[in-house]
Design brief:
With 122 residues, this protein is of the alpha+beta class. It contains four helices and nine strands. This is Glycine cleavage system H protein.
Length: 122
């Protein structure tokens, strides 16, 4: 399981990078199984920390996606409409889901070490 050092993480298994790109972690995609559909928000949608902004559907289940920050969606990964399995293949790069213009942090995000400790405890 990969946990990149340069990202911040939520307890709900989302990550965010310095540019505001958001996705789900390797642990989350592994738990979900094969991703078959992603419901993306609209560009311009306002997101709030901890609130659902979309849905990821796998062969096993349907899960809400939760925003790690407050902000406005500036881009969505359109490639996921045709190739949702990018989330399984490359969750930290090609499998990003949205990009947010970050306006604030409603909760403390975890660094890689703290996130790894959480995952090991699950």
């Amino acid at each position: 399981m990969k946990i990149p050092e340069n990202l911040k993480y939520t307890r709900d298994h989302e990550w965010i990078d310095e540019e505001g790109r958001v996705g789900i972690t390797d642990y989350a995609q592994e738990s979900l199984g094969d991703v078959v559909f992603v419901e993306l928000p609209q560009v311009g949608q306002v997101v709030k920390t901890g609130e659902a902004f979309g849905v990821v559907e796998s062969v096993k289940s349907v899960s809400d996606l939760y925003s790690p920050v407050d902000g406005t969606v500036t881009a969505v990964n359109e490639a996921l409409n045709e190739t949702p399995e990018l989330i399984n293949q490359d969750p930290y790069n090609q499998g990003w889901i949205i990009q947010v213009d970050v306006e604030g942090y409603g909760e403390e995000l975890l660094d890689a070490k703290a996130y790894q400790q959480q995952v090991e405890g699950e």
